[in-house]
Amino acid sequence: MCCDSKRRFLLLYATQKGQAKAIAEEIWQQAGAHGLEADMHCISEMDEYNLETEKDPVVIVISTTGTGDPPDTARKFVKKIQDTTLPPDHFAHLQYGLLGLGDSEYMFFCNGGKTVDRRLQELGAQHFYDTGLADDCVGLELVVDPWIDGLWLALKEALLMQKEKEGMNNVVDVVTSSPSPAPCVVDELNLSSEIQNLKLEDEGARSSDVLSQKLDDINLVAPARNTEPSLVNSVPPVSQSALNIPALPPEYIEVQFQGTHGKNPHLSSLILEETAFEVPVTKAVQLTREDAIKTALLLELDISDTVFDYQPGDAFCVICPNNANEVEELLHILGLSEKGDDFVCVKVKQGTKKKGASRPQHIPERSTLKFILTWCLEIRAVPKKAFVRALVECTSDAGEKRRLQELCSRQGASDYMRFIRDSNVCFLDLLHAFPSCRPSLNLLIEHLPKLQARSYSVSSSNLYQPGKLCFVFNIVEFPACPTRPVSRKGVCTGWLAELVAPLLHPNKNTLDTKGESFSAEKIPIFPRPNNTFHLPADPSVPFIMVGPGTGISPFIGFLQHRQKLREQHTDWEFGETWLFFGCRHQDRDYLFKQLRCFLENGTLTHLKVCFSRDSSTAEVAPPKYVQDIIRLYAKEVARILLEEKGYFYICGDKKHMADGVSDAVVDILSMEMEADRLEAMKILAMLREEKRYLQDVWS
């Protein structure tokens, strides 16, 4: 035969925190309803697929991590396809569609997906479907949902073209072996009619989805009297709409209770890619005054008994637990308050319909229930639509059930964005808002993501303080609001603040006369080296540092390191150093007033500071923000970057600071070079490419 009925496609995902995997699983689940079969694999499982010989269409879902890097699971794949010895027609046989995930808050938006897409094109692969780039800043669903909707027809047409190609190859075989053309005439007629049937199938599937929801849900509850929409209340047109809701994800986890005897796994077992160290906190200092808007703390860790090594500019991660009170609250809601210390065995459910189901790597096979909820699951996670969809089935109240259906539906997409995602509503908040929702424990394990370790910039130098590691952070505050019944602190910063309270408020029983703790609390950490955000290799090269607020953290390490180098190598030539620092109030949150010491001993050549909330009686108001004060030194900035090939470092908030600094630098380059803004932007891009304009920013 010239064609067969096979409708397989290869589905690959590369994920860092689980989003790409969840979207790939959604595609896999929907494929069956469209008469297709998705052969799904993590992109790291290169022994399970072979793109060099792949004949069927390939769909790739890939996220971006760090400063525009592909996720860890894609590193080997990317390294393999970036082999410069591969010929330009290496993937000429390959048809693919790619969905990239990213966040436009960061400079290299969707760069993981763009890197793979660009390289596949260079190696001759062809798109059967346009690349989609989804932005987590405004909501992945805005691109993901329509991209998946359009995928099915594109896949079917790609498969049909593949069959036509195979049919043509078979025609050649038939002609050379037999004079009769009749069989191929029949196949041409079948192919012609099949494409029409495929298009009708898609239209019919979409119509039936709407119809079934309309019959089931349209008059489920009476319209609410409240005319203002909220998390729990909907208004027309959503409240009166037929709903397109996602397919119910298949359950695949089984939890068995096994009594109270046993031992929990060590925390280091939760970190697969790095070695974890438990180190004592030897010092804690509050850097801000009590009346400051934010509370900033500096912690010092003793790493002298470990092989932990770092350079100034590196980051490291803290393995932190969920808030103990919130864990108890969740146990109460689940009706498992008495079972928290019981050991549970987590296994894959027999007979599950989930393809390739396995126990999540971050969930121990056996541990106490409280250990899982404390150390393994992100119970503060904003629930994704697939989770909201699963919670519908656990809700008994008809009105609450309808509202959850709306929030996970296409028609309720804006409500989901406004009342869940943008409001940072977490799983616990959702359970409070919908009290008849009683999810099972296995559902939490299936849908809540891994509790991520939190990353912090190192604020010290091992050369300056051997055996010590310091870092600075603001205690994150989430005030109470209509969708959040109680105020909360950040998961990690709140835990750290509580942990070091005895060091911040010492008494005679816990501290000696030097302020050192006899029974210091320990925290688990592991390294997260930064490949680029380091001091210039040549100490004679000048550099500029911009770090308002806690963004100054890595630059303290830079300056400590530079000071020690100056002491050890008096014959070396050292380039000039500039630091631009800003905060709200000089007397409340000027974090490191000892910066003057670096200025006095010559380590720091220029220190420029500004205070955004302090009033001034000067005739000319002083600059409020670092981007404003940088403009005052335009000639010096241009000289360092253009003439002396210096470096420019930025650390801190991206949206409200780093972008403003970049704009200021573009204006400076434009003015000093007497060039238009576009040319100046090209120069800045070149500086980034040369790794001389470096950012360590967060949103």
TrEMBL record:
<dbReference type="GO" id="GO:0010181">
    <property type="term" value="F:FMN binding"/>
</dbReference>
<dbReference type="Pfam" id="PF00258">
    <property type="entry name" value="Flavodoxin_1"/>
</dbReference>
<dbReference type="InterPro" id="IPR001709">
    <property type="entry name" value="Flavoprot_Pyr_Nucl_cyt_Rdtase"/>
</dbReference>
<dbReference type="InterPro" id="IPR008254">
    <property type="entry name" value="Flavodoxin/NO_synth"/>
</dbReference>
<keyword id="KW-0949">S-adenosyl-L-methionine</keyword>
<dbReference type="GO" id="GO:0050667">
    <property type="term" value="P:homocysteine metabolic process"/>
</dbReference>
<keyword id="KW-0486">Methionine biosynthesis</keyword>
<dbReference type="InterPro" id="IPR003097">
    <property type="entry name" value="CysJ-like_FAD-binding"/>
</dbReference>
<dbReference type="GO" id="GO:0009086">
    <property type="term" value="P:methionine biosynthetic process"/>
</dbReference>
<protein>
    <recommendedName>
        <fullName>Methionine synthase reductase</fullName>
        <ecNumber>1.16.1.8</ecNumber>
    </recommendedName>
</protein>
<dbReference type="InterPro" id="IPR017927">
    <property type="entry name" value="FAD-bd_FR_type"/>
</dbReference>
<dbReference type="InterPro" id="IPR001094">
    <property type="entry name" value="Flavdoxin-like"/>
</dbReference>
<dbReference type="InterPro" id="IPR029039">
    <property type="entry name" value="Flavoprotein-like_sf"/>
</dbReference>
<dbReference type="GO" id="GO:0005829">
    <property type="term" value="C:cytosol"/>
</dbReference>
<comment type="subunit">
    <text>Forms a multiprotein complex with MMACHC, MMADHC and MTR.</text>
</comment>
<dbReference type="Pfam" id="PF00175">
    <property type="entry name" value="NAD_binding_1"/>
</dbReference>
<dbReference type="Pfam" id="PF00667">
    <property type="entry name" value="FAD_binding_1"/>
</dbReference>
<keyword id="KW-0028">Amino-acid biosynthesis</keyword>
<feature type="domain" description="Flavodoxin-like">
    <location>
        <begin position="9"/>
        <end position="152"/>
    </location>
</feature>
<dbReference type="GO" id="GO:0030586">
    <property type="term" value="F:[methionine synthase] reductase (NADPH) activity"/>
</dbReference>
<keyword id="KW-0521">NADP</keyword>
<keyword id="KW-0963">Cytoplasm</keyword>
<dbReference type="InterPro" id="IPR001433">
    <property type="entry name" value="OxRdtase_FAD/NAD-bd"/>
</dbReference>
<dbReference type="InterPro" id="IPR017938">
    <property type="entry name" value="Riboflavin_synthase-like_b-brl"/>
</dbReference>
<dbReference type="GO" id="GO:0050660">
    <property type="term" value="F:flavin adenine dinucleotide binding"/>
</dbReference>
<keyword id="KW-0560">Oxidoreductase</keyword>
<keyword id="KW-0288">FMN</keyword>
<feature type="domain" description="FAD-binding FR-type">
    <location>
        <begin position="274"/>
        <end position="536"/>
    </location>
</feature>
<dbReference type="GO" id="GO:0046655">
    <property type="term" value="P:folic acid metabolic process"/>
</dbReference>
<keyword id="KW-0285">Flavoprotein</keyword>
<keyword id="KW-0274">FAD</keyword>
<keyword id="KW-0597">Phosphoprotein</keyword>
<dbReference type="InterPro" id="IPR023173">
    <property type="entry name" value="NADPH_Cyt_P450_Rdtase_alpha"/>
</dbReference>
<dbReference type="GO" id="GO:0009235">
    <property type="term" value="P:cobalamin metabolic process"/>
</dbReference>
<dbReference type="InterPro" id="IPR039261">
    <property type="entry name" value="FNR_nucleotide-bd"/>
</dbReference>
